[in-house]
Amino acid sequence: MSCTMLRWLLRGGCRPLVGLWALLLPVVSSHGLQQDALTEGRPKLLLVSFDGFRWDYVDRVPMPNFFSIMNDGVMVKQVENIYITKTFPNHYTLVTGLYAETHGIVANEMFDPVLNRSFSIETETMYDPQWWEEAVPLWVSIQKAGGRSGAAMWPGSDVKIRGVFPNQFLRYNASVPFETRVERIIQWFSAPKEEAVDFGVLYWEDPDKSGHLLGPQSLLMDAVIAGIDEKLGFLMNELKKAGIYEKVNLIVTSDHGMVQLSPDHIIELDEYVSRDLYTWVDKSPVVGILPKEGKLDEVYSKLVDANPNMMVYKKESIPAHFHYQHNSRIMPILLEAKEGWTIMQNRSGTFLLGNHGNDNTLPSMHPVFIARGPAFRQNYVKSFMRSVDLYPLMCHILSIPALPNNGSLSNVKDLLLREPTPTVPSARLRVKDNSYAPLVGSLMGVAMVLGFLVVFIKQVTLKQLPSLKHRRREMSQPLLQDLHL
């Protein structure tokens, strides 16, 4: 090589080679990338819901395990869940990122005029996939992306949605102890590599069950809340015993809060409208009313100004910020009791001392949110988030693309230890143990680069230096811009 040519190469004339090498590098190093992906595996995530755990319960009694996670991870002071603030709608939102009008689970009790069928969480109808298939939950998505999932009693997880069950799941049975559910989840996360789950969901009925019976203001709730902290401690210890506590991203949240009720604050519909004119679809404090054919205006006129503690909406007039209009399962008339009030047909029905379902902007309806793990910052407090934002956050942590949703990763990216990058892998990389394809690919890549060097140097040497300088400016600059070198 001539001295002139050598000086040109040292001054940067070989930058096109750098660009070409950058383009070839993924091919040359693909074997190494695949080995790293197989060694590290997909990030692990466990989502836990303590039903009805209101955001301010953590400050009510000593909660050492909750505060351990807060100090070691992140906490959000106020989480705005979705309307209506009931169990099934909000649990499906957590794993889909969708408002109820979009994912279709609009209440715990529903009527679908298209199917001409009713749904109740207290009957076998909740296992019919037709009710669930307006959305795709995260456990289905991660399995389609090559990962594995496990579900312990999470609402909807024991239903075959889009033809898919979680890889591992427990059919709902309220009599199964929390400790048994935890032990099963730990087994699934600790299984051999090809069988271990990447994403798990765990559900527990309290403090919701106790909150309904006692009311959140009852002094007896202190022991219930302290018991939830003990259960969280059991989960943390089991993760540590299995050696995966530092590897699993743990999110602890809820579906809604709880408000105290009084037998002095009851609205009796029988005082205002005959039962012969309508069908009662869902329970207080938000009641779906299905008027008999031709009776909508009559029923509405009898209810709209009936009681100052009850809001009455025709479907089309439901406030837009509720995102609760555009689904056939939302009834033509919606009643909502004001905070602290109960709607009943008469006082012969079952009265609860605590309930939820009200306006999702009310602090009493808001759930708790804490998280820790390798994906999260430490000792960080965020003032506000929306529950729909959790889904894109979990998709990012699990390295799978999020389906269209009502949330935004940008709203919660400050919870993360590292700034999100724009692209994520959509499936596991798998390589057969005895495959020589990666090695062959690597050798071919090296051969291509060496061949290019020989041809390039030969051609450049035969040309004049001024011509080389002119071509370098035209050839290399766009390539450098594309590669951000």
Automatic annotation (TrEMBL):
Organism field: Takifugu rubripes
Swiss-Prot/TrEMBL keywords: Membrane, Signal, Transmembrane, Transmembrane helix
Chain segments annotated as transmembrane: 436-457
Keyword Ligase among record annotations: no
Cited Pfam families: Phosphodiest
Keyword Signal in annotation: yes
Signal peptide range in chain numbering: 1-32
Domain of life per record: Eukaryota
Gene of this entry: enpp5
Protein name: Ectonucleotide pyrophosphatase/phosphodiesterase 5
